[in-house]
Amino acid sequence: MLDPFGRRISYLRVSVTDRCDLRCVYCMAEDMTFLPKKELLTLEELERLCGAFIDLGVDKIRLTGGEPLVRRGVMQLFQGLGSRIGAGGLKELTVTTNGTQLTKMADDLFKAGVRRINVSLDTLDPETFAAVTRWGKLEQTLDGVFAAKAAGLQVKINAVALKGVNEHEYDRMIAWCGEHGFDLTLIETMPMGDITGDRTDQYLPLSTIRRRLAERWTLLPSAHSTGGPARYETIQETGRRIGFITPMTHNFCESCNRVRLTCTGTLYMCLGQEDAADLRAPLRDPSVDDTGLRDAILSAIARKPKGHDFVIGRNHAPSVGRHMSVTGG
Ligand code: SAM
């Protein structure tokens, strides 16, 4: 499946719910209105749609959200998709989670075929964690992280770089990740959706952070790439990788291999653009068979734009009106 710029689309990210059990300040407003349940694709519909993407050459699927692990029955979807790993065409099934449900679900994720997960964790300080997530408890996420490790899952920690909030913590997080065998990715805040407050106050360019880290740690070039926005280096002292996702300071679109499906069946061809294709209508139309569904996907891919143009600044409306929880990052 090639887009108009010759990029092979092999990676589908699926937001299985817009709901979340946390309210991270940079991600959601405190009083979010969530979608009525009837708007959501059923788990069976999600599985059929993902199957159509796999048949078209997608070999990596990440379930995200909202918080994917709070969607009722979601393990059924993991199991269904997991059964397509290998001969079924899928190379990897993975998930991005805030970790709160992992003590209950890590073993089942592993059994379903998941081998690597991303856990979002912006701070190791309990008070900062409570402030950033508005109502989360650090201990619950840490218990989840260690349950995942014990289940055999490879864990990558994702931390959003927040000015004046966690910027003094990266050395500690690098050491902690090194101690427990986790990779770490730092992410610049992206201007998505209205949140309480001004994003300019949160924005911290990772070029500055990287320079600071390089004074303390030996950062070695790494060839590792996911075809995505992260640039990776290896930290010699810990042997673990550190990734930098810099949508604001580095344009990463030239190697983009992904598209994003929401829980209502809307396909976003670019995280930083508003254009989207409705796949729920063909999915629910009894006169549209699998070939018709495939055509709907292909015509959406034919509209994938060259890139995005995020702008952050005071008095700027968010570059993209929807919240990150719609597409899951
Ligand atoms: N609930 C899951 C989690 O916490 O990982 C999955 C969904 S969450 C929207 C996915 C990732 O997007 C998280 O790592 C979160 O920190 C990040 N994120 C949310 N809003 C963001 C923003 N405006 N800029 C950068 N990253 C953001």
UniProtKB/TrEMBL annotation:
Which transformation does this protein catalyse, written as a reaction?
Answer: GTP + AH2 + S-adenosyl-L-methionine = (8S)-3',8-cyclo-7,8-dihydroguanosine 5'-triphosphate + 5'-deoxyadenosine + L-methionine + A + H(+)
Which amino acids does the record list as binding [4Fe-4S] cluster 1?
20, 24, 27
Q: What enzyme category does the UniProt record give?
A: lyase
* Binding locations of GTP: 13, 62, 96, 156, 258-260
Pathway listed for it?
Cofactor biosynthesis; molybdopterin biosynthesis
What positions does the entry give for S-adenosyl-L-methionine binding?
Answer: 26, 66, 120, 190
How the cofactor is bound: the record states: Binds 2 [4Fe-4S] clusters. Binds 1 [4Fe-4S] cluster coordinated with 3 cysteines and an exchangeable S-adenosyl-L-methionine and 1 [4Fe-4S] cluster coordinated with 3 cysteines and the GTP-derived substrate.
Q: Give GO terms: molecular function aspect only.
A: GTP 3',8'-cyclase activity
Q: What sequence ranges are listed for the domain Radical SAM core?
A: 4-230
Question: Which cofactors does the annotated protein need, by name?
Answer: [4Fe-4S] cluster
Q: Is Protein transport a UniProt keyword of this protein?
A: no
Q: Which SMART domains match?
A: Elp3
Pfam family example for this protein? Mob_synth_C
Entry's EC annotation: 4.1.99.22
Binding-site residues, [4Fe-4S] cluster 2: 253, 256, 270
Q: Which Gene3D superfamilies match?
A: Aldolase class I
Question: Which UniProt keywords are listed?
Answer: 4Fe-4S, GTP-binding, Iron, Iron-sulfur, Lyase, Metal-binding, Molybdenum cofactor biosynthesis, Nucleotide-binding, S-adenosyl-L-methionine
How does this chain assemble?
A: Monomer and homodimer.
Question: Do you know which HAMAP family this protein is assigned to?
Answer: MoaA_B
Q: What does this protein do?
A: Catalyzes the cyclization of GTP to (8S)-3',8-cyclo-7,8-dihydroguanosine 5'-triphosphate.
Q: Which family does it belong to?
A: Belongs to the radical SAM superfamily. MoaA family.
Q: What is this protein called?
A: GTP 3',8-cyclase
Identify the coding gene. Answer: moaA
